[in-house]
Every structure is written in C-alpha cells, then in structure tokens.
Amino acid sequence: MPLLELDGLSRRFGALLAVDTVDLRVETGEIRAIIGPNGAGKSTLFNLITSVVKPTAGRVRFANEDITGLPVQEVAQKGIARTFQLCHLFPALSARENVRIAAQARDQGRWRFFGGDAVLRRSAEQADAALQRLGLERHADALAGTLGHGDQRLLEVAMALAQRPRLLLLDEPTQGLSVKETDHTVDILKSMLADRDLSMILVEHDMEVVFRLADFVTVLHRGRVLADGPPAVVKESAQVRSAYLGEFA
Amino acid sequence: MDFLGFAATQCLNALSQASVLFFIACGLTLIFGIMRVINFAHGVIFMLGAYVGYTASAVSGSFLLSLVVAPIVVGIVGMVFERVFLHRLYRRRDPGAYLMVTFGLAVVVSEAIRLIWGTQPLGTGIPDFLRGIVLVLGQPFPLYRLFLIALGISAAVAIWQFLDRTRAGLLIRAVSQNAEMVQALGTDIDLVRTGVFGFGCALAALGGALAAPLVTAFLGMGTTVVIDAFVVVIVGGMGSFLGSIIGSVLIAFVQVVGAYYFQELALAFMYLLMLAVLVVRPGGLLGKEE
Amino acid sequence: MNWKHGFIGAALLCALLPFALPQYMLTIVVEALIFGLLAMSLDLMVGYCRLYSFGHAAAYGLGAYACGMLLKHFALPLPIGILLAVAITVVIAIPIAWICTRSTGVSFAMLTLAFAQLGYAMLYRFKEITGGSDGIDGIPRPPGPFNIAWFESKLGYYYLVLFCLLGSYLLCRAIVRSPFGTVLAAIRENEVKARSLGYNTRRYKLATVVLAYGFGALAGALYAPFAGFASPELFFWLTSGRVLIMVVVGGAGTLVGPILGGGAFLILENELSQLTDSWPLIFGTIFIAFVMFAPQGIWGLITGRFGRSAIAASAARTEEAPDAAA
Lengths: 249, 290, 326
Hints:
- The structure holds three protein chains of three kinds.
- By secondary structure, chain A is α/β, with parallel strands linked by helices.
- Chain A has helices at 42-49, 72-78, 95-104, 117-133, 149-162, 179-194, 207-213, 231-236, 238-248, and strands at residues 4-13, 16-26, 31-35, 57-62, 65-66, 80-82, 167-171, 199-203, 216-221, 224-229.
- In chain A, the strands form two sheets. Chain A has a six-stranded mixed beta sheet, with helices on both faces. A four-stranded antiparallel beta sheet of chain A has the order 2-1-4-5, covered by helices on one side.
- In chain B, helix 1 (2-35) crosses helix 6 (167-177) and helix 1 (2-35) packs across helix 9 (221-236).
- By secondary structure, chain B is mostly helical.
- Chain C is mostly helical.
- Chain C contains 15 helices and no strands.
- In chain C, helix 7 runs antiparallel to helix 10 (201-227).
- The interface between B and C is large, with 44 and 45 residues.
C-alpha cells in the first residue's frame, strides 16, 4: 500500500490550470524527486498535498486515509512535514527554540498552561538531538533570523525532522546553497533515510542532487506528469529533454 | 401612490447617506490601495472636516467656501502626517505599527478638536439657498439631501474619470498594483503616497463638511463613521474604487431599512452588520486583500 | 538579579507603600494597581500574540457592570461577586473571541472595537437595568474575603487589589512560559509556519483572547466596588485606547512593562489633570513617539541589556533582515 496517493489531482487558478490531473504514488521508504521547468506546478503540488490550497478536482490519500481538504494543521498532525521554497522560520526565536516548537507540535502536552515542564524538557531534548544531527549545535542560541542562508535552510530541515514525520516534503532544499553546503545537506538527507521509516518528496532543480538521492523521478510540465520512473530512465527520455530544452529555445 | 412616494423618498434618503459614506470610504480605500494601510484615523479626519467646515462657514458666511476650505486644510494636515510619521514606517514590515500610529493620530486629533472647539455640538445649519423642500412623487424631500446626492454622483464620476483617463490616475492605479515596478521606472513613489493620503483625507473632510449642517459637528462622530466606512470598504473590496461606490450604496440602504424596521436596535445595527460581514467574509469580498 | 528576588522586592515595596504616602493618594494608587492589571491583561493579546485590540474596554466594562449588579442586587460577599463577574465575562468572551479570531490584523482590531461599541450601545438600550448614561450607582463594598471587615476600608482594599495583581501576574507569567505560551510566541513570529507544523493557531488565539478578557474583567470587578459606581464610559473607545497606549509605552510582551505603564499613567494622568485638561493629547503624542522610535516600550528599553522583549526582537528583525522570512 503506497504511503501517499494522488488521484487525478487538479488545481485551477482562473484560466490557468496549474496542476492538471496528476496521479502519483509514493511508497514508504522511498525518495521521490519532482522536477520540471519553472511554472510546472511543483510548488502548487506541494501546497495541494499539505492542504495550503484546496484542489479543484482529485483526491489525496495518505496512509490509506483521504486527507483532501483537511485543515493545514491536521495534515501536519497526520505526519506530513514540509519545508518551504522561501525559508519559513521564527526569526526572533533562537534556533533551538525553533526546533523545539517543531518537536512540541505533536506532543499531547502542547496545550498545557501549568505543569508543562516535562513537555518543555522533552521537546528541548529532541531539539538538541536534531540540531546535532544537522551540525547546527553551535548556533543553538542564535536568533534564527541572524543565521546565514545555508544554515537557515538546514534549520528548517531540522525543524521538519523534529516533527518525526512519516513523509517529508522538501521544496528546493538546496536552493542558494554553496557546493559544500549542498553536499552536506544531501549527506544528511541520505542518513535520515537510512535509520527511519521515512519517505521523502523533493522538489529540485539541481540534477546532481536528484541523481544522488532519488529512487524515482517524476517530471512535471505545465501541470501534467510528463514522465515517471527511475532517474536513469527519465534522464534519457526524449520527451523530457524537449520539455526542458523547449523552454530555453 | 402614497407608498410609491414613500419608497422614492426613502431611496433618495439612502442615496444621500450613501453620498456621505462614499466620500469617506473612497478615501479609505484609495489610501489602502496605495499604501496597504487602513487609516484608523479616517473617522477623526471626517470629524475634523466637519469642524473646520463649521468654522469656515461661520467666519466667512459662505457654506460653499467651507466646502473648499475644509478639504484643503485637512488634506494638508493629512499630508504632513504622512510625511512625518507614516513615511518612516514603510521599511518596517510590521502592519501593527501603522495601526498603532493612525490610532494615536485619532486620539491626538480627537483631543485637539475638543480643545479648540469645545465639547458642545456646533452647527450653522443648512445654508439658506439649500434649505427647502422638494416634492418627489407627492412626498416632501429636503433639498439639501438632493444636493448631497448630486455632489456625490459628480464626485464619483470625476474621480472615476481621473483614475481612468489622466496620467496621474494611471500612476495611482499602477502604484496600487505594483509599487516597486513603478519605482524602478523612475517615479517618486513617496510623492504619490503622500498625495493620495492627502487626497483621501481631503475627501473625508469634504464628507464631514457636508454632513455638518445635517447632524451638527459633535465629538464622537468619528468613531461610528470609521466603522461604517470600514464595513463599506470590506463589502466593496479593499482598494477597489468601484467597490467603494457599490459598498456605500449597499450599506446606506441597509442602514435606512434597518433604522425604519428595527428602530430600537438602530445604534447596535451598524455593529451587528459589520459583525455579519466579517463573519461571512473575514478576508473581504472583492479587491485586494491585506 | 534573580527574577524571584525582583518579584519579592517589588511586592514588599508595594506592601509598604501605603505607609509612605499621604492618605489621599491611596485612592489613586489603588486605581493605578487596577489599571496595571488591566494593562497586563491586554499585553497577553498584544504583546505575546500580536492581536491588536481596540476594544479591551469591553472586558473592563463587563467585569465592572457584572460585579456591580451582582453586589448591588444580590448582596453577595465580595469574593463571590468578583469571581462570578469574571466567570460571566469569560462566558461572554468566548463567542466574541470566536468571531474576532476569524479575522486578523485590522479586521480583528475593528471587530474588537465593534464589540466594545456594541456593549456601549447595549448599555443605553437596556437602560432600565444598566442605568443608561448614569450607570450603576451605589455599589456596596461588602466585607472582603472570609467576611473580614477590614477589607472594606481603603487600606484593606488596597491589599486585596495588590494580592489580586500579584497573583494574576504569577499566573500570567506561568502561562506565558508554559508550552501553551511558547506556541503564542511562534504564532506571533510566523503564524503560517506554526500552522504548518501542526498547531491549531485559531484555538490558541481564541484562548488568549478569552484569558485576556478574564483578567481584564477581574480589573473591572475590582474597580466597581471600590469606586462605588460603574458608568458607560468604561466601554468607550478612548478607554480601550488608554489601555493600549499603556501596554505599548510600558513595554508590550513583558507583562511587567504594562503593569508599570498602567500604574504610572494613571498617576501621571491624575497629576496632569490638575495642570492641564489635555492629557490625552500628551499621551497620544508620547504613544506615537514610542511606536515609531521605541516599540519595545519603557520596560523593554530598561531590560534591553538583559534580554529582549518580544516586540523588540520582532521590530529589530523586521529592520535588519527583511528577506529572512517569506
């Protein structure tokens, strides 16, 4: 049974069909990359999965449950975590607090007014662990807004990790990163997969990253799925080539 | 026959109220379109217009002159305020700051009015040449209200043409759609903002000066009116000029109908209406959102 | 300096204050404490959650009128009257909060204002019960907790109010540092992100508003038997304005700042009103100056060296790195 199923998912914005009858299946433990020229509908697809935007047609199923149209926070509670294209953090809070809030999100005690010390301690421990995992411990007390771009992106990943998700959606995680930072991120993502029951969907422009990480690649073009398969196969596809080159012609 | 006449006068009544509302709401929506700021002080600006208008007409003896003086004076006050205070807040991305500052302005102006003009309501009444009754389908109707309607329609048309046909109007529409782009093309955005803010205030002041003979200038006339104007802008769409016209007419009709059928709730009616609008459409109907 | 030391020191200072002041000042100081409590209640909304309210007077007015009516018509003991008044206000606050939190920003502020204005209008509409523009007169000051008659005296009442203020402060501080409170900070910083992490931000905001109304009602309920009357002025937008000014100038997001701000303003207001009639003008101007140049408020400025208050950090953030958050 696939972890995530998209059935005929569509989203229309006025005259523009941003996502056009997309079918997708992602299995547990899989890394899927979604690639495509700009404007192909990749971010909209993420928004549809996480319910930031409601589909005009089609359904989203997660772990065999129909989650179409659920409120954003409930989708997150089901175990889907996501990073954003433009880094979304809590800038005036410390890096540690950022991750701690993320860790606290699925804790039963997050509503406590009093007697919440255990909750705070628990989530702080998880936060420290996540920060260490990503090599960010030295920044733990710095305000998130003051970190460099690369560290901010990593912090966002740390936050997503702290949510203990079953499905992680990463929207262009290596955008704007140096070669060294990109390598670092890829290594971390690979290691995350190694020891947990996690699936990942990556929106990426960097083909090297795609080939290093992905088990399967889905190509989107003008909202539709153009090709779907292992990276090597997709790479050779003439259709895909022309879609990309066509954009630059 | 009787009913038709009655209905006609009630409609005209609503239209005259819509006129006054339009002057305030139009200013509010234009300011929002350009600056993404809801000018909380707009109600107090309206009140200032009423008081300045009163003084102008009491001193000069000419009502028409007050209709010219009030907008100009208050418009200038508005521009000064924008230059000195709001201007500095643009780089801050905190919308709360605008809210606070315009609120502070509301308090200060409110208090200044009280100090200058005192606590007693002031009114010179309707000027002689506009006093009088007109027969509409056999029913009497105040001439002054017809005057309001005429002025409101002329202003709406004039502003519409201004926005649609003149270069300045085009500039304003461009800035409200994409300020950065216009700035990149070399226009001084700041000047446009100051100008529009002043214009918006002038319009509200005109509304105040027009309303004064009817309701007298009194302290507190600003608070009710700012909520009314806000409802109009929400209903019509924040930033939409056309919306401010439609919204004013709609809200005025609701007010008139409400005052007639729900007499006792009259005071509360406006607030209930606003609650209803915001509950149904928390983000606004047409036009640009915050 | 440890927080606990500061708190105990302040409490002691306040406890000894009545003996250092002339008798006539005691009335003002009691009102100052009440206003401090009111300001702190608004800080929960404004400072910790960035929910700007123009209608917090409603909480104050509701608490005052409820307590006044209960004490006058049902001859209840003081603590029961106060607690019931707070409970009634909290119950009324829930649907109000539910409606208001459907919107954000200006719409939220306008809604809070509308509710306060609605309350004001209702007072006039039901003037048989509420006394209309005259308000409720002759509210008794029944013997305080455990029927001790000493609390009826001004001095006794002072300690009652002080106790409520200190207790409320401790409660609010605990709330703000609890898991619930940390989520408020996250919502303030980036509500979209908080939601995408899995927090039902609407519910948190709703709870914050209700809490704020609760503590605000406590202030009102303490005021009514002290002053002996409750008038519609309590609901007026300028009253809401004063509280908001106190919070921002005192230091939003610090709890302490607004208490000091509220207290200081009330005292200043009293002194100033003997000199000039236009204290709102002065306060309004000071308010604008603080919003523009010192958004962290007085307390935020003072404690700037030891730790940043919520608003200060945000204000700094928006000026330093406008592209850090989408």
